[in-house]
Input
Amino acid sequence: MNGFALMTVLLSFLACGQTAIAQETKDIGDVSDGNRAQPVHLLKLYDERGVVIEPGDTPVVPFSAKQTCRQCHDYGKISGGWHFNTASDSVPPGRPGEPWIYVNRAAVTQIPLSYRRWPGTYLPAQIGMSAFKFVGTFGRQSPGGGVGEDPRFEDVNDELRWEISGKLEVNCLSCHDAEPGHNQAEYAQQTTRQNFRWAAAASSGFASMRGAARDMPNSYDMYGLILPEKPDAVPPSISYNQSRFDDRGRVLLDIDRRVPAGRCYFCHSSKVVDPAVPDRWESDEDVHLRAGMTCVDCHRNGLDHMMIRGYEGESNGVSAAFSCKGCHMETGRMGAPRPLHLGIPAVHFDKLTCTACHSGPWPDRTTLRVKTARAHSLGIPNADKADDALPQIMEPVFAAQADGKIAPHRAVWPSFWARMTGDSLRLIQPEVIGPFISDMIITDTTRVIGRWLTLTDKDIARVLTFLQHQDSAAGKPVFISGGKLHELSSDTTIMRRDHRAAEPYLWPFAHDVRPKSRSLGVRGCSDCHDTDAPFYFGNVAVASPFVAESDTLVRMTAYQEGSAASAWTFAMSFLFRPWLKVLIIVSFVILAAVVILSLFQGLSRLIRALSGGEE
Amino acid sequence: MLRILSILALLALLILLVLDMRKEGLKGTSFRGWVRTQWDSVHSLWESRRSITRGNALGVLRGLFYLLTLGLFLILAVTGFLPVVMFGGHLSGVLLLVHVTAAPLFALSLAFLSLLWAHRQRFTVENWGTVKHLAARGKVRRDSLIDLVRKLCFWLVLFFALPLILSIILGVFPLFGTDGQDNLVLLHGLSALLLTITAVVHTYTLTTHSQRRHSYHGEHT
Output
């Protein structure tokens, strides 16, 4: 047999073998045989090229969760899940959710971003943020995938940087690693250093990471010998704990199908700045977790990782069965108690979500600030622990959803500079405006600089004038902030007006869920139907950088379907309700007496008639 | 269910009334005359409060309470059925506010009305005779039939008012859960529907009868 024929036979054999393996491996990971025991994941590690990593390899390359896990699992299907499909055009965005909030204090900017195009959010590209920068900024609290590895989002200008940093592939370990040493904060730090391809391995608990791709020149090659230009810059490098490899080069990954709540919490924690609950030890966790459940008991998913978000109307079938209503009112799954809701008129269930009464902090006269993991980098070393750290998010805002039901929401007030043509806005890149504002503010030594760079009308006018002179043909410069659009009325004065772009971006939240004994309505109708009940008449604080308007408040009813006047009138009627109840009971007794008495009289006549006239 | 039932029942009632009106010759100009007569009757009842004396006080009160109850009933029927029939949902907002404010007044007014009218609306030997004639498929004078139907409607209104009011009294106390509340609302709606039908028929018999008398005697009754 000549060499060519031998090669052909060999390739055919390999191709058949590959197909058979692909078929077989799919069965290993993705199709259950019914055994409920947790499979042991003693695995060989693969790098991003799909090459097996052996202990002692040089250079040491980071393992790729994508390549390692795809040996047995359908990565293509998994990577289409909710956590990774933000930029997919084929996935409906669903109910508005928490956006990524870009903050640039120097530019007095906080702006909700999302690739899902939820109304009120902006695409990162609208503020000049490329996918590469987006991943470097927000990849810290994402499990990778999506724009982190989708070539459609690669900007030509970032091509070399992507080569150096690698892709931020889906990191299965972000959620499924039950190893105590798994360090998601390390993952976050690696993403900010642009060590995308190293991030999963670095956080795994059996690897150690040094250096930053961010500091490497465009010519850097991790497999080559080109050294960084800066002498103090350390090239990214990783080393493994060799004792974790067995004699066949396999590593035990402590994979948990039932993801622990702690893994979810890294990206989905929140801290309410509540004077009534100043410390963590004073707060209660979600009642479900207290009862021993974990997040994924309700937020389940199949292989496609389209996790059940759990809101009413999400879809029918399985998702509906795991909403509040699904478990508590219909299926009773997992022992969910069926609430009695004694004395609560049925109209409440048409008008309110379950979360309106059962979720979030107990409402007060004014909304509270809340810090979320994704907005405030919670859990990451050097995160700003101050209660008033930017961005400023408020909760609970009892606002009507698209389906008309009132639900508790979080709110962020956008603050940014833009150019306006007609009624449409084109955002100005914060980096352009930041230095000008910083110079202007810092030269004023009398000013107290808080979390916001506080601005006066004069400051805003100066910035707007600067922008106007910069490019007078590009559209009228405006400043969106504090719920208003600001524009120049003369060189030194500004004019404020309402604009839809200035309205807060609201997204509903559901956790922490409070138990029945701490739900709205437990003390009676007045919890919501009092003339000063926060549910209707609470104030939504407007986060604002203005000196004069820093305490601007908006009435809660502004976000509900009815007017404040009708809500107040309705609440007023509750003052008379006890009397009306008495009135109606008295009337009922009189009516019942008349009817019963007449019935008896009729009966008496009938008896007399039937007696045939005998006395 | 209540929405469909309400639509069907109210439509059927409307058709029956129109048919009966046509049978009675109430169409075109005579219908407008009938409306005018009713308005005049209401107006004269309202004006009778000015001429109240010790002797006719009860009679005037009877008329005024009837008017008051009818007015409140109309408010409740409109605010109650409008959201159910039009939108298929629960009452809420301004309509609910008006409904819950008018409801206790209606209940009280109806209670007084029952006290003032119960004796006059008791069934008599003549009514029993009409029933026997009807049972024997005999011919019955329209006046007798109207009198019987009117009294029957009066007592049915009082009877249906009991579950109507009770379902609300029970609903405002923490006694029933979600399912119970739903059932109470359904009971309230069904009672209201039946009460509406009987009240409309009662009013219709009263007005057509007065029209007939008006046309017979050529004067307002």
Helices of chain B lie at 2-23, 29-47, 57-87, 93-117, 125-135, 142-171, 178-217.
